């Protein structure tokens, strides 16, 4: 191959094969990650089946009560989910965050 000229057809074949290999590898990685999320995901994990009252919401959450982030049961849970989302979206750099109000849209 050294010293030979490469035709356009050969270049297209090599490029196409290379792209096919890369996309196959990415697809395999995607499937492995999806499998990990199915194995290690704890959906709807709750230690306490009852809802937490407003007066002891902070104390109960500090004691290890898990909340379902997909379906928060009350306003305190919704505020905790929003605060965690904002902190996560900023890479954990914001430590002190205060939510003044929450309004539902739609």
Quick description:
It holds the Pfam family OAD_gamma. The protein is mainly alpha-helical.
Features:
3 helices; 2 domains; mainly alpha; 106 residues
Write the layout of secondary structure elements.
Elements: H1 8-40, H2 57-62, H3 75-89
Descriptive overview:
With 106 residues, this protein is mainly alpha-helical. It folds into two domains: 8-39; 54-106, no CATH class. The protein contains three helices and no strands. The longest helix is centred in the first third of the chain and has 33 residues, at 8-40. The chain is elongated and about 70 Å long. Keywords: Cell membrane, Membrane, Plasmid, Transmembrane, Transmembrane helix.
The unreliable regions are 46-61
Which percent band covers the strand fraction?
under 5%
Strand elements, count:
0
- What structural class should be given to the helix and strand makeup? mainly alpha
Q: How many discrete structural domains? A: 2
Which of globular, elongated, flat, extended, rod-shaped describes the shape? elongated
- Annotation field: number of helices: 3
The run of helices and strands is HHH
Q: Tell me the radius of gyration.
A: 25 Å
Largest sheet geometry: none
Give the N-to-C terminal Cα separation: 65 Å
pLDDT averaged over residues = 75
Give the fraction of residues assigned to helices: 40-55%
Transmembrane segments: 20-40
GO molecular function: sodium ion transmembrane transporter activity
InterPro entries: Na_pump_deCOase (IPR005899)
Subcellular location: Cell membrane
């Amino acid at each position: 191959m050294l010293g030979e000229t490469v035709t356009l057809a050969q270049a297209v074949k090599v490029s196409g094969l290379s792209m096919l290999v890369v996309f196959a590898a990415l697809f395999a990685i995607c499937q492995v990650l999806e499998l990990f999320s199915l194995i290690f995901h704890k959906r709807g994990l709750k230690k306490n089946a009852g809802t937490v009252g407003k007066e002891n919401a902070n104390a109960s959450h500090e004691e290890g009560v898990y909340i379902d982030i997909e379906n928060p049961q009350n306003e305190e849970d919704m505020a905790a989910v929003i605060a965690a989302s904002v902190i996560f979206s900023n890479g954990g750099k914001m430590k002190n965050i205060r939510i003044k109000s929450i309004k539902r849209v739609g």
